[in-house]
Amino acid sequence: MTDSILSKAATMEIPINSNGDSRTAEEDSLEQGAQIGGSLDEIVGTLPVAMDLQQVMVSGPNLNETSIVSGGYGGAAEGIIPTSSIKDIRSKSRGITPSHSAASRIANQPGHYPAPSMHHSNSNPSMMSEEATRGVAVEKFDSMKKWSINTYKCTKQMFSERFGRGTKTVDLELEAQIDVLRETKMKYERILRLARELTNHFYNMVQTQQALGDTFADLSQKSPELQDEFGYNAETQRLLCKNGETLLGAINFFVSSINTLVNKTMEDTLMTIKMYEIARLEFDAYRADLEELSVGPRDAAAMVRMEIAQQQYQIQKDKYERLHSDVSIKLKFLEENKVKVMHKQLLLFHNAVSAYFAGNQQQLEQTLRQFNVKLKPPGSDKPSWLEEQ
């Protein structure tokens, strides 16, 4: 009885694995892990080079979830060793991280080419658009910077001139001509305004004469005892209306010519004068800046600033001289054109008005032919029947 109990106890203390070996579970587990690791190397080495590692992991068993059970069917839980820990141990011994060990062996195979990356081709248009946008922004910033500096210098120069602390470049002869032109333009604008008022009043008078002549003609048909008297007055009003329309044509031609002279020719010259005055102010501003730098220190930085100021001063000087010449030429041609135009228009106005109030219809028509004034037929200002539809 005692011998049987001792033999059972000895049998229980010696674990027996499935192969009948008397080795411990830990030694058995380590050996099986080594065998599995070796088999993994053989499997990975025999895979085709072009096969992707992801396809192998999808098609094959999930090695991270498999485990090696040592001992018999009723063995203890301590004998379960995950294969992932075995691969981690082998990878660390080789200097490769566990997650990339198999992928690194495949990538190092001869003839293996990595997949082309599309990131560069996709980001290239966006990089170009960003560079273009950045270039436009830099250009706008530079233009704004130049405008701000120029405005500051011109404003400083303007206040210096106004308070008597700055010097101003003045051409007395040219300034006198500019003042005369501005005064002449104001007077010609008054002539133009009065001539337009005369045209409106005279047009109303002609319309009244026409209506009065129509009324006289109607009454001459309805009043037999006053037929002759109404008829004479109707003919007189119709003649005055016809001569009035001829005079209106002459006055309209006069107004159109004065309007062209004042609002186009003179205005164009005055626009050039405004550009000249702005150039003069900029020239004096950069000249004052250069003079201020010339009396300052002569270190390296100051010499660089002085050289830049000298270049800007020369640019403004060339611009000022060019506009000065343009203004002188335009003033000269404007004076000649004004004399020529006003001589013709004043003679036309005088002859037309004199012939109208003298009742000389032939002289009035001859005056218009002399100055090539073409009268519009009555009702030409009204739209045609087709245009009304």
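^ that was protein a. below is b, sequence first then the tokens
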Amino acid sequence: MNVGVVTYMSDQQFNPKNVSIMSKIIRIEVNGRVIANLTDPLKIYFPVNNYTNQSNLQYVYSCQYFDETGETGNDTWRTDGCNTTQLSDEIVECSCDHMTPFAVLLVEVGNNNIDASQWEILSYISYVGCSLSTLFSASAILSFILNKNVRTEVSSSIHVSLSAALFLLNSSFMLSEWVASLSMNGLCVFIAVTIHYSLLSSFTWMAIEAMHLYLLLARVFNIYIKYYMVKLSLIGWGVPAAVVGSLLSLQSHYSFYGNKEIKLSSSNLTNAFCWITEPLILYGVNLSYVSVVFLFNTVVLITVSRQIFKLKQVDSKNKFKSLKDAITVLGLMCLLGSSWGLVFLGSGYTNYPVLYLFCISNTLQGFFIFQWTCMTARPEKKKSTHVKSLSTDNSTTEKNKAIENT
């Protein structure tokens, strides 16, 4: 088998889209044969050109091959089948499972990381999940309005507030790409602002869920606070409004919200949607907000899980207790938004298993909360509509009920 290796001194014929090619282009092929899906990948060591980053964007080297088959259109650089390892500032190792023209390109972090086919699948999963969450969040809100007994429970009021925030988030998210395609900047800004506000509101209500759960655990028989739900509502809806309102007041000067485009790694196609256009706001505000809420909720979840474990030791005669406790912890993880922590695992690089798990778990959060609400509401039918005063005996049985009925 004769293997041909060609090094191109000019990248002109491979650069119709004006991409940043940082190495020489090397073609490796076998005459008359198509070599693909190699068990032992082909490794190529490219010397790369130095560059000076004079912008506030981040760039990385990316091993890519030139698509000459027409699968996604000619004149396209793609990444599938190739892995990139930067050995030093001057050398990049490309490991690919096929033979084609190869080169090292400079790509923006977070912009050219997702393959077009993977983006399409993730979009379908997101739309299906958001549709289900929107439907069941609306069902939760409607059942709360129609059920007088449920409206008297503070925990139920918090649950339905979280469901309302998720309803707004999922419904506005589903409109994002469609509105971006209309080329109506004002409407796109409105959708982007709505998504941002509902996202921060969702996280705020998750934090309120955690705070309320801790109060139930620490003060089972003395949780009465004057205008408690009113104060929680001011926090849950008011704090995100203050953050988003502050950014929106500067919109005419800095354009924080609007049409944002993503270039997909396997093609030169772009995908537009309505969202935050400024990376500093996207990562500075959102990531800080999410980090604080996630850390607080995780501490509360660990504290409650330990309490559940202690109660299990006291009530060890019940053989179904372990399964019930496991379901309780999973339900609390959903209420407290533990699955949003997956965003930290995929930070800085594309991890498709994490992306799929993130999309499935978080787009279905509204559906899971509705199921949890139904499960915890059934025992309440046997109780009186509202208990304002209880004995001050701090027994393990009452703590268990407080945790399960949160």
